[in-house]
């Protein structure tokens, strides 16, 4: 039985072109980019070229790109680094209740350091209202962090409008754009963001490498110490194979974001048409404000752990939400924020997320297996 991987929001398979570039880098680009000899200079050139490509993908200056170990570190650096650097101006932070745990846990840590955090509610579609942000702002607010696309239900947030709201406020504006990267054209100037997080492994690049865009005027405090790399903002010898792989992955989608978006939307339309033949389900989130990469479905009358276990046995690889918390098997904090603590939809939600290799035939096949699994579980429950 062929397996069906529908968990691309957790991670994507490495593209063959990326793998080839990284393989070459592992054997040929072994020099330390900080060394001044020829081998080091060759490596430095590769890092600089990658930084330029990633900056281009964000409409940014290459000097404003900080390489990190991934999205989690970039979020931590953005939030904790900004808060510690600007605490003389105030100690109030605003975020949403549906953020990735890299953001939420950073905020929880800052609360232990004397900061106050406002966790904004969302409506039933998972959207943060502009007025909600406006009402939460105070003269003490130094940071606002709202994700661009939610990683569990795919809700698209009004980042540009929030950026406009904050234009004349002292608060630094950060967005986690990990789930938007490669599918939504990003321009930091249009979005009016000061900090923006991306990572390679969500766009068919390698794990262990990400980036933080930081507007030049914004100051942050480093979280690590021990070197002058990344303009003293993130010390440590650069992950050269990862950076080269990241560059290759970005070059594969750069300029093709809208074409990819249309392709994924077609796949998702087919998927939703098929999944709606299953009785007693709900598709979570507002269809007009949701990424074409993600479809979150509650199969009422079932339980997450049973569904995931049985789908795995049937060769369908999906998740209940963020891969960072999937092992806990607790109800999604995102769905709880949308529907309330005790709503049945929070107990039976499965996230399906789509990838480059998917076809409409795969959409039909996966729903066929899901339908068989759900019907079998419901029969056993009765």
How is this structure best described in words?
The protein is built from 12 helices and 12 strands. It is of the alpha/beta class. The protein has 2 domains: about 5-10 and about 255-380, Aspartate Aminotransferase, domain 1 (Alpha-Beta Complex); about 15-255, Type I PLP-dependent aspartate aminotransferase-like (Major domain) (Aspartate Aminotransferase, domain 2, 3-Layer(aba) Sandwich), CATH 3.40.640.10. It has a 7-stranded mixed sheet, with helices on both faces. It has a 3-stranded antiparallel sheet with strand order 9-10-12. Strand 5, helix 6 (about 160-165) and strand 6 (about 170-175) form a beta-alpha-beta unit. Helix 1 packs antiparallel against helix 8 (about 240-255) and helix 2 runs parallel beside helix 8. The longest helix has 22 residues, at about 360-380. The two termini are about 30 Å apart. The relative contact order is 0.17.
List the strand order in the largest sheet.
2-8-7-6-5-3-4
Sheet having the most strands: 7 strands, mixed
CATH superfamily of the largest domain: Type I PLP-dependent aspartate aminotransferase-like (Major domain)
The CATH architecture of the largest domain comes to 3-Layer(aba) Sandwich
Strand content: 5-15%
> What is the multimeric organization of the chains shown?
single chain
Determine the structural class based on helices, strands and strand pairing.
Answer: alpha/beta
What is the CATH first-level class name of the largest domain? Alpha Beta
Keywords: Iron, Iron-sulfur, Metal-binding, Pyridoxal phosphate, Transferase
Family: Belongs to the class-V pyridoxal-phosphate-dependent aminotransferase family. NifS/IscS subfamily.
GO molecular function, one term: iron-sulfur cluster binding
Protein name: cysteine desulfurase
């Amino acid at each position: 039985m062929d397996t069906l991987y529908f968990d691309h929001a957790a991670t994507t398979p490495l593209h063959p072109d990326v793998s080839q570039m990284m393989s070459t880098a592992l054997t040929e680009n072994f020099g330390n980019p900080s060394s001044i000899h020829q081998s080091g200079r060759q490596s430095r050139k590769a890092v600089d070229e990658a930084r330029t490509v990633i900056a281009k993908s964000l409409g940014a200056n290459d000097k404003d790109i900080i390489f990190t170990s991934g999205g989690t570190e970039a979020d931590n650096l953005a939030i904790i680094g900004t808060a510690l650097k600007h605490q003389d101006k105030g100690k109030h932070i605003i975020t949403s209740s549906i953020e990735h745990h890299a953001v939420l846990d950073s905020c929880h840590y800052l609360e232990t350091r004397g900061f106050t955090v406002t966790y904004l509610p969302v409506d039933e579609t998972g959207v943060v209202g502009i007025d909600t942000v406006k009402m939460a702002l105070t003269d003490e607010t130094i940071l606002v962090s709202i994700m661009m696309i939610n990683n569990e239900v795919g809700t698209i947030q009004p980042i540009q409008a929030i950026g406009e709201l904050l234009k004349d406020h002292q608060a630094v504006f950060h967005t986690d754009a990990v789930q938007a990267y490669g599918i939504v054209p990003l321009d930091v100037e249009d979005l009016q963001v000061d900090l923006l997080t991306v990572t390679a492994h969500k766009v068919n690049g390698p794990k262990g490498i990400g980036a933080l865009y930081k507007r030049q005027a914004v100051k942050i405090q480093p979280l690590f110490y021990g070197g002058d790399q990344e303009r003293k903002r993130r010390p440590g010898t650069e992950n050269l194979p990862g950076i080269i792989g990241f560059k290759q992955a970005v070059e594969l989608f750069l300029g093709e974001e809208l074409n990819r978006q249309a392709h994924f939307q077609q796949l998702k339309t087919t998927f939703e048409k098929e999944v709606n033949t299953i009785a007693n389900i709900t598709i979570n989130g507002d269809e007009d404000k949701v990424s074409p990469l993600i479809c979150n479905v509650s199969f009422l009358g079932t339980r997450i752990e049973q569904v995931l276990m049985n789908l795995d046995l049937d060769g369908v690889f999906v998740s209940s939400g963020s891969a960072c918390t999937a092992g806990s098997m607790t109800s999604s904090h995102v769905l709880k924020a949308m529907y309330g603590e005790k709503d049945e939809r929070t107990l039976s939600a499965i996230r399906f997320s789509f990838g480059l290799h998917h076809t409409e035939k795969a959409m039909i096949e996966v729903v066929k297996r899901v339908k068989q699994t759900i019907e079998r579980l419901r029969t056993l429950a009765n």
